[in-house]
Amino acid sequence: MAEKDQQVHPPAPANKHLRSDEESAGLQAKELKRKKRIKYAVYIAAFAVFQTAIILVFALTVMRVKNPKVRIGRITIETMETNNTGAAAAAASFDLKFIAQVTVKNTNFGHYRFDHSTMSFLYDGVIVGEAIIPKARARARSTKKLDVIVEVNSRALTNTTPLGSELSSNILTLNSQAKLKGKVELMKVIKRNKSPEMNCTLTFNVSTRNLQDLNCK
Ligand SMILES: *[C@@H]1O[C@H](CO)[C@@H](O)[C@H](O)[C@H]1NC(C)=O
Ligand SMILES: *[C@@H]1O[C@H](CO)[C@@H](O)[C@H](O)[C@H]1NC(C)=O
Ligand SMILES: *[C@@H]1O[C@H](CO)[C@@H](O)[C@H](O)[C@H]1NC(C)=O
Questions:
Q1: Ligand 3 mean position to 199 CA, how many Å?
Q2: pTM for this structure?
Q3: Among the bound ligands, the one closest to the CA of 206
Q4: Which residues are in the Late embryogenesis abundant protein LEA-2 subgroup domain (predicted)?
Q5: Which of 3, 35, 44, 172 has the greatest number of CB atoms lying within 10 Å of its CB?
Q6: CATH of 69-216, one of 3.40.50, 2.120.10, 2.30.30, 2.60.40
């Protein structure tokens, strides 16, 4: 009996002990779980902030569609003839043939495809020549260069007075304008119409028959 009692008795405190152990273990587990949950919440929040930052940077740099820049990069004169018969200012004239290198700078992360367009050359506001900029594609983050043959002459001018005085100071100033029409395409999904304009001033040196100055805006 005593043996039995002894046999029966001990488990009780052990059980009790186990229960309180279990309880504290349970509490510890709960606490651990709570801590884990907080940790996960912090991780998720940090990840969300990180992702938002990435998306923001992406939206502000990669996805922002900027206007490509079109300008004249270089002029190679083939022939240049000028007449300035001094006293008879009305007889002042010019005739030029040159190759204009048109550059289309595309800083976007997608290509810029543009249609052909007209490049006009003006003297004193009057069109003295036109040329066609062929349709082409400027690759992402690169500059497309196109050589365009241009012929200009003074035949369309009715008032050659400013020309006469310009030529007598050995200068010929032309203005060139163009407007491209095309689309910037980002990742085959986003398409934006972009129509960059060109406005360049070309100053020729009449005595050396060279291009003295090229200024594009
Ligand atoms: C300049 O004058 C010469 C002689 O008069 C003529 O042969 C030539 O065609 C003229 N050039 C231009 C550009 O008008
Ligand atoms: C044309 O070029 C020559 C040689 O570079 C220079 O001496 C002259 O001043 C220039 N003419 C003008 C009008 O700038
Ligand atoms: C082009 O630039 C010139 C000055 O360099 C300016 O006088 C002219 O108005 C401009 N033209 C256009 C169409 O913007």
A1: 6
A2: 0.76
A3: 2
A4: 102-200
A5: 172
A6: 2.60.40
- Per-residue pLDDT, 160: 73
Q: Whose CA is nearest to atom 10 of ligand 1?
A: 83
Which atom of ligand 1 is least distant from the CA of 153? 13
Q: How far is CA 189 from CA 21, 115, 182, 185, 192, in A?
A: 62, 20, 15, 7, 10
- The mean pLDDT value for 69-79 works out to 96
pLDDT in tens, 182-203: 999 988 888 999 999 999 999 9
In the chain, where the domains are located: 15-60, 69-216
Digit-coded pLDDT (tens) for 125-134: 999 999 999 9
CA 109 to chain centre: 7
